[in-house]
Amino acid sequence: MFTGIIEQMGKIESPDLPAEGGRLTILAPEVAASLAVSSSIAVNGCCLTVVSSDSMRFAADLSGETLRRTSFGELKPGALVNLERPLTAGKEFGGHFVQGHIDGIGRVAHLKPEGESWWLGVRVPEEIARFVATKGSIAVDGISLTVAGWRDGIAEMAVIPFTYMHTNLRDRRPGDAVNLEADMLAKYLDRLLDARAEPAPSRITLARLVEEGF
User: Fold this and answer.
1) Rounded Cα gap, residues 37 and 143, in angstroms
2) Which CATH number do you get for residue 40?
3) Does residue 214 belong to any structural domain of this protein?
4) Exposed e or buried b per residue across 8-34, where buried means at least 16 C-beta atoms within 10 angstroms of its C-beta
5) Are 137 and 183 in contact (CB under 8 A)?
6) In a domain, 96, yes or no
7) What pLDDT, on a 0 to 100 scale, did the predictor assign at position 200?
8) CB contact at 8 A, 29 and 55
9) Parent domain of 26
10) pLDDT-based confidence at 193, cuts 50/70/90?
């Protein structure tokens, strides 16, 4: 479990990964020394398992499925990534509950300055749009953000200067892919409503009819 409050940024070192998957290596001296093999870490919001680490970098394996469902397939060496270690007992909880399970890929529509802050617009795919609500939460590349507006499939979010400078948003350009994770509470509520709308299974079965003499 994560919070969407980015701790540090890392830099992609490994070359382009093949479509079937491979090993992702990230230069992150501020974080790597605290990681051990089998540790979890959110990289651009995606929960990965550390397979090797030293004082400067760590590595994680990505499957072909992960590459297809996240923005990792479009990252190049040198790209900045957001890093967050898992929430632990006693740690201050900010942001919102983030599972590290990416729901889909969004596209940056715009990133416009307004005073010292910024307006980020992200085009949200249809399968995630049902979970987006004004004043609700969404994780964009692992960053916990509040949806300030929603129009024509684009979620609008205000970004404060600290978030802009301490995450990879400062390198984002229109058209760039970003990992999206919808608010888990919205997903559970949606599933609950779907379940309530489904007809109850019939208690009449062939075996029951035979038992009753039909």
Assistant:
1) 25
2) 2.40.30.20
3) no
4) bbbebebeebeeebbebbbbbeebbee
5) yes
6) no
7) 59
8) yes
9) 8-84
10) confident
Within this chain, do residues 111 and 182 fall inside the same structural domain, yes or no?
A: yes
Q: Bridge-partner residues for 49, per DSSP?
A: 40
| Pair 52, 114 in one domain | no
- List pLDDT tens digits, range 133-151: 999 999 999 999 999 999 9
Query: pLDDT at residue 206 above 60?
Result: no
Structure tokens at 131: 């979970």
- What are phi and psi for residue 34, nearest 5 degrees? -90, -5
* Domain tally, the chain: 2
Shared-domain flag, residues 80 and 131: no
Domain check: are 71 and 131 in the same one?
no
Centroid of chain to Cα 51? 20
